Amino acid sequence: MPRVKTGVVRRKGHKKILSLAKGYRMTRNRLFKVANEAVLHAGQYAYNGRKERKQQMRIIWITRINAALSSIVDAPKYSRFIKALSDKKILLNRKSMAALATTIPNAFKDVVSFSTKK
User: Fold this and answer.
1) 66-100 in b/e burial notation, b at 16+ Cβ within 10 A?
2) Cα separation of 86 and 95, whole Å?
3) Which overall architecture, per CATH, does domain 7-116 show?
4) Do residues 38 and 21 touch, judged by C-beta distance below 8 A?
5) What is the crossing angle of helices 105-116 and 78-87, to 10°?
6) CA gyration radius for the chain?
7) pLDDT in the model for residue 71
8) CA separation (Å) from 67 to 36, 58, 76, 84, 93?
């Protein structure tokens, strides 16, 4: 079997990695070995960041709901409000409740009063 050189394939792979490393500082955008490692780490950071963004958004929604509850007179605390929602089998998620609290406060007040009344 004849010998096959990897020149074209390897160059294509290197160019792909170096194009992904564009904008990196120092040798990370020029040297393949260093750029490859930097691109791998950047991919891990991006993956973790996508997961973290979801956590941060949930924290923001909870903060907005809590702030809206504190502005309503005779409203329960956040934890008791969530418990009341689940007891009444109201299937509103935190994202939609936060949107209600910020855009349509009267509708949010109605949800609060419905969930807390006996």
Assistant:
1) bebbeebeebeebeebbebbeeeeeeeebeebbbb
2) 16
3) Orthogonal Bundle (1.10)
4) yes
5) 70
6) 26
7) 87
8) 46, 14, 12, 17, 16
Instruction: List, for residues 27-86, the tens digit of each pLDDT value.
Output: 999 999 999 999 999 999 999 999 999 999 999 999 999 999 988 888 888 888 999 888
Neighbours of 108 (CB within 10 A): 24
The predicted structure's pLDDT at residue 40: 96
Query: Which CA distances in Å does 78 have to 27, 84, 111?
Result: 51, 10, 13
Q: C-alpha dihedral over 103, 109, 112, 115, to 10 degrees?
A: -110
Tell me the DSSP string of 59-113.
Answer: HHHHHHHHHHHHHSTTPPPHHHHHHHHHHTT----HHHHHHHHHH-HHHHHHHHH
pLDDT at 58: 95
Please tell me the pTM assigned to this model: 0.74
- Residue 79 to residue 85: CA distance in whole angstroms: 10
Site of tokens 């909870």: 62
